[in-house]
Design brief:
By secondary structure, the protein is mainly beta. The protein has a domain at 231-364. It contains 4 helices and 31 strands. The protein has helices at residues 330-341, 344-353, 356-359, 371-386; strands spanning 3-9, 12-19, 22-24, 34-35, 38-42, 54-55, 58-59, 64-72, 78-83, 86-91, 96-102, 107-112, 118-123, 127-132, 146-150, 155-160, 166-171, 176-180, 187-191, 198-202, 210-215, 219-224, 229-235, 244-253, 256-263, 268-275, 281-289, 295-301, 304-309, 316-322, 325-328. The strands form 8 sheets. It has a 5-stranded antiparallel β-sheet, with no helix packed on it. The chain has a 4-stranded antiparallel β-sheet with strand order 2-1-5-4, with no helix packed on it. Strands 12-13-14-15 form a 4-stranded antiparallel β-sheet, with no helix packed on it. The protein is globular and about 85 Å long. The chain starts with a strand and ends with a helix. It holds the Pfam family WD40.
Length: 387
Amino acid sequence: MHSLLAHCSQSRPCICKSLLASVPTGTDQLTIPADDDYYLYLAQKIFPIADAKSVQGTPVTDGNIPMVCSSLSSSGKYFAACTNKTLTLWDVSSCTRVASYDLARAASSVAFSSSEDMIVIADKSGDAYLFRVGDVPSKLEPSPPELLLGHVSMLLKILISHDDKYVLTCDRDEKIRVSRFPNAYNIETYCLGHEDSVTCLNFPKSSPCMLISGSSDGTLRLWNFTTGELLHTQDCSLNENTLIVDLVSFQVNSTSFVVCVIMNKYSYLRVFSIDVSDSLKCNFQEDVSIPCSSPRALLANLDELFVLSYDSPHFIIALKFVNNTFTLCAELNEKLKDVARQFNDDFLSITAQQPDDKLLSHLNKRKIDDTQDYYKRKNERLLANSK
């Protein structure tokens, strides 16, 4: 069962991020069982099908449709989630489905504009689409999607800058493209330097022109994304198979922030401090032990950090950012474990269908050394010519 971790901020519940992989099928409602100030949002029976084996080419298993990516609008008004070939938009306050859109290809990332009237979708064929949702509640049929831009490689992440002037996309071919938004045929610049797939992007709040990227090459890089200038490279690699899975940033003050990084098959949260007061300085701060071996996503919410993993029973791990350091929240983690136990069988069923050793391996490029074969054939030709 697909679950969404949510935290109650003042009077408005704010959905944080999707966990794991699938949603049951049926009606248009989201049910919200409350647990103190924390909620588990369950996407109950969202797609109105009964016994179908697939929807838009997406296989249905045990009544569940895989959900591959999701996003919450900046104010918490809308929540968008994608199956392979369907985008569904919900109104959070009423917990009702607002609209559904068919996608041309399997989605890989989704993001809202700051104005909340547009959604961008990146797909695995390398294309990105724009959905205008500002007038959806007043329409019976949503507007058709517009082709925004295209890459020649699979897109892994898409973001819109805080001022809604730029759309940033990264792909499996080491590139980060910065395009004008919404007229993305105007390419502002490229951020080039990674040596493998760019897996994650983040904007630090304290530096509006700065971009943080993580990659399968094991490096964390800081850019001025308006010019494409590489500001700093931080090597996070532990071995040749190191892969940065996700990263988030926490603002410390107006001139400094910390970056939290999770890595494939590494049971620690790596924390780096960034200071931009004078010249940019990046220093390793600490490794925080987390009770999981397969961290899969990070979510920052005010002074809290949530780690989503594939390890039972620690599917959701909460940490607190206090005095410039991260500590595990014992009381909250017990509550989250109790919630996760209710859906333990569903989580285990999902993770069994996605083995950990194969989940991210497709992101790494295959390194083939054919020089030995070349020299062997060359020697054979030389020997043949000498006879």
